[in-house]
## 1
Amino acid sequence: MSGDGGTIRRVIGLVTALLLLSPISIEVQVPAPAGVLGGTLTLPAGRGPFPAVTTLTGSGAHYRDGNRTPDHPYRPFRQIADKLAACGIATLRVDDRGVGESTGDANAATAEDTAADGAAALTFLRARPEIDGRRVGLIGHSYGGEIAPMVAAEDPKVAAVVLLAGPARPFRETMRYQNRYRIENDAAVAPADREKALAEAMIQQDANVKASTEAWRRSIQDRDPLPTARRLHMPVLILQGSTDRAVSPEDAVLLERAIREGGNRRVERLLFPGVNHHFQRDAVGAREGYDHLPTQDLAPEVLDTLCKWLPATLR
């Protein structure tokens, strides 16, 4: 029997050693205001406690990997989690409220509700024994880039914020930018008719928001993100693609300026040439072209930037 016990101990020791050599992912449930958020916690190889980030998705209901449907191949947050694990950073990514394994009503969730869920994810991370609670940050993409500052402005313990194509203007003006690009690239609209077409599109946009069943649209229709950005006093990284047709690259400039106006000099801004709103290599960047790109992967230079900046900032 003693021999058997020694064998078992050796096997356990071998398994433990192998686990320490490879990143691991743990399925978790995060207590949140609307019940629970189902998620995945990816841990780097080795022994913690590790610095960590939690991710915030774009507009509308998303699954934890950043995908809008269960089988869509665009999985930005899974890629980010895998990359950061190799750089010594843990990542928590969760299904949005009312999606996947998360409870609650996705349509009823306002921007403030989503920010409360982000704050709950931070609380969860800080309580985990594998995580160094003093070194926890946020990564927000698009709409999540508006939510992340809302969370961080109320939580001075946030150690770092990454804004991926975060908007600097109200949703109404973001949609004006999108509609202008669409109209200017529509061969059926004569140049002399473009301003009229844009005005009509904006009237329709306002009507769509008022009629929408998705509360987040109304909650940010006229919300200015810049006053919140001025309240950020932790290190902030702003990333933007030059062919972003959803959020103007100029918004990154406005965000940086606002953060500096608030007295924070620990802000960096990078523009990636030929990279779209999804942070994929894409010379055109039009929404209708997303699914026809050669790959749904993020541009390697974006991942490399995260892998450089976050470990240095959260060291």
Note: The chain has a mean pLDDT of 94.
## 2
Amino acid sequence: MGLPEAIKKSTQDYIIEALRKKFKNYKMGDEVKPFHYRLLGKDRMALFSFIQSINTMFGTSIFEQTAIRLAQEKFKVAKNHVKAFNRISSEAQSTIQSIIDQLSSSKINPNKVRETELISNATKDKILHDISTPLVDVWLETYNGELYLIDIKTVKPNISSFISFKRTLLEWVAVELAQNKYHKIHSLIAMPYNPNEPEPYKSWQLRGMLDLDHELLVGKEFWDFVGGEGAYEDLLICFEDAGVILRPEIDAYFAKFKLK
């Protein structure tokens, strides 16, 4: 199937616009590195610094915005940076802490279906109090009342952060169940690409904390989920075509950093 032509065009245009805006506003750091400049060239060091900045931009905006663009044809609602409901029951919080404790000590294996059931039972007809949760990176609602709350993470997450990731996923389920607005609620971690391609993603660090079948989407699986079958391959072409268009501008921009 793949992406509609209009979506591909708007996505490519968005990438080009975002990079041009980055060029316009980008300023290389003030730190002088005379040995690096003479060994590698100031233009290469400038490019290296810019790429680091681009990596940050990908993680904080481009991947989120691109996911929303792709999802608009498939989902009833597709938004980013959404604040989840801010009320939870004390019993639900206790249930979440119990799940985290048991997972951390390997007393149980992750099972999102069972965890959601436990949280649902701890939420019904209970007194709620305020809670603060992270913004939802990608918020998707289907036409049959299912809700997907997606947190986009770096492809090599810090192992020490996994407990925090899991707690966020469970708390999102709890606060949205407290509203009883949706038929089903799913909370997931998404990683925009698989750094191990063509091998499967090496997810051993996540085992024991995340239910890999229900809480993790990586690379092609993620993009095809939000945009439909074939979305991942079409998206790679969008980035490639944008790069071809921008290449003369990129070369000209970094040529000015060459040492004279």
Note: The mean pLDDT is 89.
